[in-house]
Amino acid sequence: MASSKTLTAKNLEALGAERLAELLIELSTGNADLKRRIRLELAGASGSAEVAREIRKRLTTLAKSRSFLDWNKIKAFATDLETQLSAIVNVVARGDVGEALELLWRFMALAEPTFGRCDDSNGRLSAVFAAAAEHLAPLAASAAVNPQTLASQVFDAIRRNGYGQFDGIVSDMAPVLGSPGLDRLEQLLADWEKEERDRPPAADRRIIGYGSSSGPIYEDDFEARRRERTIQDARRDIADARGDVDGYIAQYDAQARQSPVIAVEIARRLLEAGRAREALEAIEATGDQWQGRRGYDWQRTRADILDALDRHDEAQSDRWNGFSTGLDGRHLRAYLKRLPDFDDIEAEERAMTLALAFRDVHTALGFLLEWPALDRASQLILARSGELNGDLYGLLSPAGEALETRFPLAATLARRAMIDFTLGHARYKRYGHAARHLLECESVAARITDFGSHPDHQAYVERLRAKHGRKAAFWADIG
Q: Considering the chain, what percentage of its residues have pLDDT values greater than 70?
């Protein structure tokens, strides 16, 4: 049974309305956020219209504010915004969805001036506006807004999307806009594109940066390019909403279509539209530019296209090559999935053998841990511990944690690699972590029955003391 002092609704009710009111007045003194919350609750007792009036007043006040928001004020400001947003979608929308939508547009209009007067490096305010944007389409659908009116509102949002607060709005609103709304939006974009560029006199042009090869970057040039990119992005979203693959492709010139990232997007859409041959042409137009960081998406898409063309052997060959060149487990899973029963077992064994002999031990270890194949990861470390780079703590630390239960020696060697690197390179900021790793080695040492060619724990510690005994900060953490 809960104590009478426990903060539960039942215990608080026992205090009585009068005492609770006194406590709220006392607690809200000096607490602006709590006062605003109480005012909204009081307004709610009079109906959603009164709540809407209070929200409108607060949004107007926030819109007029010009003072810089220091980092220590961000949390309180975000809480204030969250309170207003919650009242809009949970109170006002129940009474008048049209009013709620209008308030939400006003709320979103705060984004640009707000981001302009603060440092939101932790993303707290971005998260608030992103959450608010998610309610726009549902409220617009419930309010049955005229598609022409909604198109104008979406267009205004596109133009004011300086901080990404309206990213994805065309895709989100497309079902609500319908064909008439999308047509109207496309017309507004065309009119905007035709607007004459406002180029100031040469003496008044403002330089906002310098390119490494292009020289000064002028504000009017930057804004012109931003307008062009914004229009193209919106048109691509409209084309996607209509299922118009050719309209999507038309937003890229011939040179842009050779970019692997863009080629993948085009090829995927062509493939989904049943145009596999064109998809293959699109993706192969990139030549060998696909290799590198974006290689997986390119290879996966090409293999899927080959399957659609009934060139299954080539598709499987691409998947295996994709795996064998970089040990990307996603390629291997796709390869195994398409093999007949029992053939996948043999193929997986072949993949493990390849990984153990892979040229880069760290790539191999990452793959084996993620697959997961911890027995093979242990085998890899025992065979190639001398190749481990102790600076890669982002890989070796999780490896130690994953292996210590079943494979304590492998876990120990991974941790020793980090300890040796830290002390050998005098990375004093990591001494605390190195000391923790040494204590972890000590905790599993008793379970290692055979250290093989490696020194046991006591001998290893003695070796460390002989070589790094003067690094007092490290040994102080050992105790």
A: 88
Q: What is the pLDDT of residues 431-473, one digit of tens each?
A: 999 999 999 999 999 999 999 999 999 999 999 999 999 999 8
- Report residue 72 as tokens: 């220590």
Q: Quick check: is 377 in a domain?
A: yes
- 202: pLDDT confidence band, cut at 50, 70 and 90? confident
The tokens describing 452, both together, are 């093989």
Domain count within the chain: 4
Whether 229 is in a domain gets the answer yes
Determine, yes or no, domain membership for 363. Answer: no
List residues bridging with 218 in a β-sheet: 207
User: Going by C-beta distance under 8 Å and a sequence separation of 6 or more, which residues neighbour residue 475?
Assistant: 435, 465, 469
- pLDDT at position 51 is 84
- Omega before residue 113 within 30° of 0, cis: no
Domain span at 27? 21-66+74-144
- Answer yes or no: is pLDDT of 348 > 80: yes
201 in a structural domain = no
